[in-house]
Design brief:
Layout (H helix, E strand, L loop, with lengths): L4 E4 L26 E2 L1 H10 L4 H8 E5 L6 E5 L12 E2 L2 E2 L7 H5 L2 E7 L6 E8 L15 H7 L3 H20 L6 H11 L2 H10 L10 H9 L1 H17 L8
Antiparallel strand pairs: 1-8, 2-4, 3-4, 5-6, 7-8
């Protein structure tokens, strides 16, 4: 564990406060190296009423993760703003309701393990104590667990844990960097959801699969359902894992 991370329990008081009254307000949104999960992108571009391609082109850059070997989407760096988040304003975050999971979690870090026998997930948390952050030491009656609940993290964690499962599977079956067509399929199905939907319904992408009409209707208009479908489709096209369609 890095030196600036301190393990913390869910029943510990969360003596931390972040707000305009802090002298460091918005500092954590600058000099940013912010990776975005597929669910982060889904929430942000929908909040901004943007198509996935327009959002990705305007706000993000793409590279390969050094550990996962998978395409990673980050906020596009802008030296003119001190590499600030494109959505930070003097009064705070302009997309606060749909901010990324890592922003919601800060100043906590979260790690998970999954039981091979039961599939049950165990969570572990640590405080990230960075020198620029002056929010520590504020008295609070909230435990870590209560504070996390207030950050509305459940949906983000559930979706991002599915991505972690996929990454773990990829590293076991196909270690190393994804290249060419494989990387394109991963990016298409998980980040560029509008284009994925277009290829499904207008270009017969799923012609070889017998996808029930009920499933097709669900993914036609529901982004979350399409993202879940994309995760399963990536497992199928990259690793040959059959897709099972619950109706």
């Amino acid at each position: 564990m890095p030196e600036d991370m301190v393990p913390i329990r869910l029943n510990t008081l969360m003596n931390f406060r972040c707000g305009p009254e802090n002298e460091c307000f918005n500092d954590c949104c600058r000099d940013l190296n912010q990776a975005l999960t597929p669910y982060d992108v889904l929430r942000l571009r929908r909040s901004l009423a943007m198509g996935s391609q327009d959002f990705l082109k305007k706000y993000t850059s793409l590279h390969n993760g050094p550990e996962s070997g998978l395409p990673v989407v980050e906020f596009k760096p802008n030296p003119e703003t001190g590499h600030a988040c494109p959505f930070v304003r003097p009064e705070g975050c302009s997309v606060y309701t749909d901010r990324p999971a890592s922003c919601r979690m800060y100043p906590l870090a979260r790690a998970i393990t999954r039981s091979r026998e039961t599939g049950e997930i165990s969570e572990f948390f640590a405080l990230i104590e960075e020198p620029h952050c002056k929010g520590f030491g504020a008295k609070s009656d909230l435990t870590v667990q209560e504070w996390l609940k207030g950050q509305d993290l459940q949906a983000h964690n559930e979706e991002n844990d599915k991505l972690m499962d996929l990454i773990g599977l990829k590293n076991r079956i196909l270690p190393g960097r994804l290249e060419g067509n494989q990387a394109d399929k991963f990016y298409l199905a998980l980040y560029d959801l509008d284009e994925f939907r277009t290829r499904i319904f207008n270009q017969n992408l799923l012609e070889a699969l017998k996808v029930p009409k009920t499933v097709l209707e669900k993914i036609r208009n529901n982004d979350e359902a399409l993202l879940d479908f994309g995760l399963a489709w990536v497992k199928y096209v990259l690793f040959g894992i059959p897709m099972f369609f619950g109706e």
